Amino acid sequence: MKLTSAYQSADCTISFELFPPKTTAGLDKLCQNVDRLTDFGPKFMTCTYGAGGSSQGMTLDVLRQVKSRTNLPVASHLTCVGATVPQLCDFLQQATDAGVDYIVALRGDPPQGSDRFVQTEGGLQYANELVELIRERFNHFGILVAGYPEVHQEAPDAQTDLTNLKRKVDAGADVVVTQLFYDNADFYRFRDDCDRAGITVPIVPGILPVTNFAQAKRIATMCKSAIPASLEDAFAKCQNADQEFEIGVEHARRQTIDLMENGVPGIHYYVLNKTEAAERLLQGLSFAV
């Protein structure tokens, strides 16, 4: 299935993001969770890999398993970090041989302890260059790229960030999937800005059902995503983990319903290889089939 066709329905399409487990037992558990997530009718699943390119092999193993068990299209993340152009092409060939359908093309984060990305000698500096490489040499892949409703942490301003996003789309990206956010108003503003900038590909919100206050704070800090005061207050009043779970799931469910009512083409869920929160927040909702 072509990536763009996943978003041609009048209804909302969903997809899930996984990450490669570190053990065989972890892979077995992930496969069980994938089976449960499939019950909600996702159109595809994606898989990340570790910082600096680590666990790429396991990423392809996960995607082979997912495709075998579900017959769904699958997408692999790919970043410019620590890789030359020949190494990027080698991975893209491995992904082709593994039956991967789509690539999530990213520049990648700076190394831990640094706030600046350093281009690898013989490698690429920007995500739009990676999109161009894929289009030129591996054009059979559908391509997803990242968008940032609250502005990428390295961008000097929102307009520069938007210009960079349009550069990725103009290079050949099919779909924009956003960084996580906790306030839908940030997404709607971003979507309007994309429209004014002439970005016409689907803009798909990314949602993380956070069920732990400490985790929420940590992830928000890393991603430069603001936690609404009302949500922070609700978490602060919790007396146990069960209450935190309920609050996080309910917030993500409200986000989901509001996004669907406001006509998003799809929603991409960062499920952290778990199913409990996703199952609870998606229960009873109707998505594209």
Q: What does this protein look like?
A:
This protein is an alpha/beta fold and 289 residues long. It has a single domain, classed as Alpha-Beta Barrel (TIM Barrel), CATH 3.20.20. Helices cover 44% and strands 15% of the residues. It has an 8-stranded parallel β-barrel with strand order 1-2-3-4-5-6-7-8, surrounded by 6 helices. Strand 1, helix 1 and strand 2 form a beta-alpha-beta unit. Helix 9 crosses helix 10. It is globular. 41% of the residues are buried. Its cofactor is FAD. Belongs to the methylenetetrahydrofolate reductase family. This is Methylenetetrahydrofolate reductase. InterPro entries: FAD-linked_oxidoreductase-like (IPR029041), Mehydrof_redctse-like (IPR003171), MTHF_reductase_bac (IPR004620). One of its GO terms (biological process) is tetrahydrofolate interconversion.
In short:
By secondary structure, this protein is of the alpha/beta class. Helices cover 44% and strands 15% of the residues. The chain has one domain: TIM Barrel.
